[in-house]
Amino acid sequence: MAVISYLTKIQFDFGAIKLLADEMKALGIKRPLIVTDKGLVKTGILDTIRANIPNEFDVSVFDGTPENPTEAATWEALKIYKENGCDGIIAVGGGSSMDLAKGVRLLATHEGPLAQYAMVEGGVARIRPDVSKLIAVATTSGTGSEVGRGAVIVLEDGRKLALVSPYLIPNVAINDPELTLGLPPVLTAGTGMDAITHCIETFLSLAVNPPADGISLEGLRLASRSIETAVKDGSNRQARWDMMMGSMMGAMSFQKGLGAVHALSHPLGAVKGLRLHHGTLNAVFLPAVLRFNKSVVGDKYPRVAQAMGLPENTDIADAISKLNAKLGIPASLREMGVTDDLLDGIALAATKDHAHPTNPRTPSVAEYRKLLDEAMAGN
């Protein structure tokens, strides 16, 4: 029997940010902590957010979210939350800020450390419903963390693990494509390929969830038709709408499960010093994993091709490689600065990642190492 649920409120459209204060009042939030990053502050988006919060609210800000959210940064944000008597959180940004905010909402009512709540450590059952209130405001179109039940955080021991619980899903998601109009091409490409990877991996996942399959294919259709336009012309409103909706749908559907792409990108993304963008990593890994899975997915690849607006007999792995090239995505891991000495450790770590069990074909450590070699060489 399959248990299926989609459990969050989403305000979606141009101008949706104007509803922020109403949603805060509905949740009873009077002293919010805004969790964001310094890069986003420089863009002026935080000023836009604050302009939509009346003076009656006592607002605190944590803008120290790193590119890959860490447990250390989570504790720093929690300190501000407690010192200012905050009663709710507003996550503003992409997946990093949202995942860190989920860590803060958890630690606001649960004892640390975070490792005990990781999915692979049996932590799902340890997360209670009494978490802090959270509103997620998306400013990118990629992770879809604003509707997701997971938070992927680099723990104190260096592992990049997922905290997963329906209680971590934000109380409200605000998806305003207007906030993405100024997103630069390189981030539009990387986050957009993250969304496309979510849709494809979800559809191919072993888990049984037909509603998720339908949502993922529609999300793939929207993102595929508009990603090139969004990268070339960031002011195109229809393309930005499509990308944000496709991203959100990918995340709604990946409650079903992901696969080997994410099993590889999670541990590699945790390597200190490399500062690897998660969505870009996914894009580079995706062609090799698609080739690896081809023998076991039945008629699913023609359906993926159809959703992407391609002939049903299209080589999907080759199509993704060509799309990556058009978007300016690096052709290989080596081009991103990854070195051979890291590969054995990443291959082993991939077998322990929470996304590993739902890949349609279960890779061994040796097979993960081969996938890494392919991604190092370029697809």
The helix content is 40-55%
Looking at the overall shape, the CATH architecture of the largest domain is Up-down Bundle
Structural class of the helix and strand makeup? alpha/beta
- What's the CATH C level of the largest domain? Mainly Alpha
Description of the structure:
The chain has 379 residues and is an alpha/beta fold. It has two domains: 9-179, 3-Layer(aba) Sandwich (Rossmann fold), CATH 3.40.50; 184-377, Up-down Bundle (Dehydroquinate synthase-like, alpha domain). Helix content is 46%, strand content 9%. The protein has helices spanning 20-27, 38-43, 45-51, 71-83, 95-107, 185-204, 210-232, 237-253, 260-269, 278-293, 300-307, 316-327, 343-350, 365-377, and strands spanning 9-12, 32-35, 60-62, 88-93, 134-138, 150-154, 160-164, 172-175. It has a six-stranded parallel β-sheet, with helices on both faces.
